[in-house]
Design a protein that fits this description.
The complex is a heterodimer of chains A (about 280) and B (about 230). Chain A is α/β, with parallel strands linked by helices. Chain A contains 14 helices and six strands. In chain A, strands 2-1-3-4-5-6 form a six-stranded parallel beta sheet, with helices on both faces. In chain A, helix 5 runs parallel beside helix 6 (about 115-125), helix 7 (about 140-150) packs across helix 14 (about 270-280) and helix 11 packs across helix 12 (about 225-240). Chain B has about 230 residues and is of the alpha/beta class. Chain B has two domains: about 15-155, Rossmann fold, CATH 3.40.50.2300; about 165-220, Winged helix-like DNA-binding domain superfamily/Winged helix DNA-binding domain (Arc Repressor Mutant, subunit A, Orthogonal Bundle). Chain B is about 45% helix and about 10% strand. Chain B has a six-stranded parallel beta sheet with strand order 2-1-3-4-5-6, sandwiched between helices. The chains are: A alpha/beta (about 280), B alpha/beta (about 230). At the A-B interface, helix 4 and helix 13 of A face helix 1 and helix 10 of B.
Chain lengths: ~280, ~230
């Protein structure tokens, strides 16, 4: 598993494929096994750096130091974490310096937003793969991520075993979307395709009014359409966004900037919003 | 506590800590990090599970986020005083807004750590609160030095406070999370009718007419986080 023959920086496809057995074992045994995993890897024939060359080399980007420390704990020693940064600008610099195999990043990053960072990296270093590890579960974020060129999307509420599985799969060249997002039910096969899922003008009008607390009847009369049409718009929006309640739609509308949020409540950053418009 | 020698009788026992964080990746990573120094007796993912675990385990310290599913950190901290009166409360959160810090101390916490801080900050907070001191992340302290010295009991209710009862806030959070009356009834172990009654009382008290308006109110008050 820790082939000492691999002397290049970059693991060969076969070398990257082999350790997957180890990764799936981690899935079966759950995160409590991580202590044993580390014992196992330390009993590898050689403990020199080159013996670990088969491990994917990662770069982490998250604005919260505590989260970075937690992620490191979850990822090491199965993977090699080259470095961790707190903002998008530092990410771009570190990515070019270190040439990791995989970048794990949050969507909301200061300086340069996560989506923009991925776009830039796609042009500067197309072989580099990006995996979002984020708290944002709304489907439009997932679409925007893949449209920008990401290879994977995992939630912070995913398990350590799932994250490790995602890293191995993406290292092999697969695309990974967390099953927690249930994208298959919401929009089979379309989530990784660019441009799908953006709301139409009319849908945005309906969504805004829903979030403002208008009833279906009021919306119908304001827009000069039937109540049935309003309800069908609402159902469409819910399906497209993967949100099933009025409360969830309201929170989403605030995030989109369709309705005003109150002071002191952090909503999606300006650039996330721009990322959305790009996906339109 | 600095020594990790097992069976040694002259080292004080490691503080028993209960961790509450809804992001599993962060929770699991933190649990392992903290376990190097502390006795992590439990790690749970929402405010309701926290209360249950705290009542059972009676930890020395509870580390919890503010934005939490089912029952937010502020309301959980208020109820902790009842189920586990001896335990110290430390918030671990992304919120740097002084209103959040003030409310945290008001609901009974003595520690407040921002997630932009490192794990050593968290350990320092645990040590400080166990000594009976109040702790605020050094990253925030220059901004909110007055909050450390102020008497939290005398503090005026801030913009995050309201006149709702704790049960009403519980219902409000669950409504804003998009749960149906039936689901809420199940979570709170009350009848659907009682849920509807609470919901309409909240609306009357706050002068709000729809679920959407309730949701926006809950967002403004930090009762739920952004979607």
């Amino acid at each position: 598993m820790r082939s000492s023959a691999a002397s290049s920086d970059r693991p060969e496809p076969e070398a990257a494929g082999t350790p997957v057995a180890g990764a799936s074992a981690a899935v079966h045994h759950g995160e409590l096994m991580s202590a044993n995993e580390s014992t196992a890897s330390s009993t590898a024939p050689s403990s020199t750096a080159s013996s670990l060359a088969g491990r994917p080399r990662l770069l982490l980007a998250d604005p919260q130091a505590l989260v970075i420390e937690a992620l490191r704990r979850v990822l090491c020693p199965e993977f090699e974490v080259l470095d961790a940064v707190a903002d998008g600008e530092a990410l771009l610099a570190a990515a070019c310096d270190l040439r990791p195999d995989l970048i794990l990043l949050e969507l909301s990053l200061p300086q340069v937003d996560g989506l923009d960072a991925v776009r830039v990296l796609r042009t500067r270093a197309p072989e580099l793969r990006c995996l979002f590890v984020t708290q944002h579960a709304a489907l439009h974020h997932v679409r925007a991520a893949f449209a920008a060129g990401a290879s994977g999307y995992v939630l912070k509420e995913s398990t350590p075993a799932e994250l490790r599985e995602a890293v191995w799969r993406i290292s092999r060249g697969d695309v990974y979307v967390s099953p927690k997002l249930r994208v298959d039910e919401a929009c089979p096969g379309s989530v990784t395709r660019q441009g799908s899922g953006a709301l139409t003008m009319r849908q945005r009008e309906v969504l805004r009014r829903v979030a403002e607390g208008r009833t279906g009847k009021q919306i119908a009369s304001e827009l000069g359409i039937s109540l049935k049409t309003v309800e069908s718009h609402k159902a469409c929006i819910s399906r497209q966004l993967g949100l099933r309640s009025t409360a969830a739609l309201t929170r989403h509308a605030i995030e989109l900037g369709l309705v005003r949020a109150a002071d002191g409540v952090r909503i999606a950053s300006e650039s996330e919003h721009q990322g959305l418009q790009v996906a339109d | 506590m600095s020594s990790r020698v097992e069976g040694s009788t002259d080292t004080p026992p490691r503080p028993r800590v209960l961790l509450c964080e809804d992001h599993t990746l962060v929770r699991e990573g933190l649990r392992q990090l903290l376990a190097d120094t502390l006795d992590v007796v439990g790690a749970v993912e929402d405010g309701r599970a926290l209360l249950q675990a705290a009542e059972q385990l009676q930890p020395d310290v509870v580390l919890l986020d503010i934005t939490l599913p089912q029952l937010n950190g502020f309301d959980a901290a208020r109820q902790l005083a009842r189920v586990s009166p001896a335990c110290k409360v430390v918030f671990v959160t992304i919120h740097a807004d002084p209103a959040y810090v003030r409310e945290a101390f008001r609901v009974g916490a003595t520690g407040y750590v921002v997630k932009t801080a490192a794990c050593v900050d968290l350990l320092a907070a645990v040590t400080a609160v166990l000594k009976g001191q109040r702790y605020l992340s050094p990253l925030l302290a220059p901004l909110h030095a007055d909050l450390l010295s102020a008497d939290p009991a005398a503090a005026q209710p801030g913009k995050l406070s309201d006149t709702l009862t704790s049960r009403q806030r519980e219902v409000l959070q669950l409504v804003a999370e998009g749960r149906t009356a039936r689901e809420i009834a199940g979570v709170l172990n009350i009848s659907r009718k009682t849920v509807e009654f609470h919901k309409s009382s909240i609306m009357r008290l706050l002068g709000l007419r729809t679920t959407a308006e309730l949701t926006r109110y809950a967002l403004e008050r930090g009762i739920v986080g952004p979607a």
